[in-house]
Amino acid sequence: MSGPVRKYLLCLGALGAAGLLGPAGARAGGGWTRATGGGYAKIGLTTVSTTRYHPLGGGTTATARFRQQVVSLYAEYGLSSRWEVVLNAPVYRRAEFVTATPTQGVGDVQLGLRYAVLRGAWPLAVGLAVEAPTGNAAARGRNRQDPRLTIALPTGDNEWNVWARAALSHSLAPRLPAYVSLDVGYNQRTRGFTSQYTYGAEVGYQVGKAWLTATVRTLDNVRAPTSARLASIGLGEGVAYSSAALGVNYAISKHWWATLNVAGGFGRLRNVYSGVQPTAGVAYEW
To answer: What's the domain range around 222?
Structure first.
């Protein structure tokens, strides 16, 4: 499959940001991998402003307004005809409640490899990625009225994660300028946190210079989480969500792309904030 379908899989922004609907970052490129020496890089800004928190036990709780902005860098580079390296780095994360001072800094950086198991009409790629605790798990905001009172607003979770993922894709060209992609993943967490699994589906359709995309995704825990390990909202124990997103990815030139993605949560939401979450970005492909 040539560039058009493959790049639009990558142009989707994160479906969530830590503290809202899960870790930030763009999705891997479906079942397709980059050609040797080929690459893709995108920088995106994800924002959210909401008062809806979903505790570990379920339901919805109204809180002081929570705001977050995450600037993420996502990149792929083809090492060979079947191998590619992938970087997903939240280079800047800022979070605050209106009642407290903000925290800011780098998030947890993820680096991995993907391998093209199958090529042709139904490409299948598998990958492993390590997420390092490069963020600040101890970051706290201070109450604006009484600085002695603080609230946890971390930029990382202070644990090493190992992600295993697989993605299967199919292009409907030349019958239709469209594609479909399915993916599954498993997150082996450490430091006593409950491990997680994820699955999702994505479709894309080309209209002129733009690709329109629709995505659904679920993240859940492999067993009942431990409430004593709750730790940080969106980064600690028991984070679970389903999300849906719509996106548009427009070709500015041969190499440059403008991207916009809007996501929202539904279904089983646990230890996360939910709200409309736009991601705007610029991507370069070579």
So the answer is: 3-285
Collapse the DSSP code of 228 into the 3-class scheme (helix H, G, I; strand E, B; otherwise coil) and give the result: helix
Quote the number of domains for the chain: 1
CATH number of the domain within which 93 lies = 2.40.160.40
pLDDT > 70 fraction of the chain, expressed in percent and rounded: 87
Alpha carbon distance 41, 129 (integer Å): 17
How far apart are the C-alpha atoms of 50 and 248, rounded to whole Å?
Answer: 24
Tens of pLDDT, residues 210-266? 999 999 999 999 998 877 665 556 667 889 999 999 999 999 999 999 999 999 999
Pairing of strands 196-207, 161-171: unpaired
d(CA 74, CA 229): 30
∠85-89-94 over CA atoms, to 5°? 170
With a CB cutoff of 8 Å and minimum separation 6, the contacts of 103 are: 94, 95, 96, 136, 139, 140, 141, 153, 154, 155
Q: Kindly report the CA angle at 113 between 285 and 217, in degrees rounded to 5?
A: 80
Distance CA 247, CA 131 (A): 26
Sign of the Cα pseudo-torsion (43, 215, 183, 1, in order): negative
What is the per-residue pLDDT for 20?
Answer: 45
Question: What DSSP line would sit under 133-149, residue for residue?
Answer: --S-TT-EEEBSS-TT-
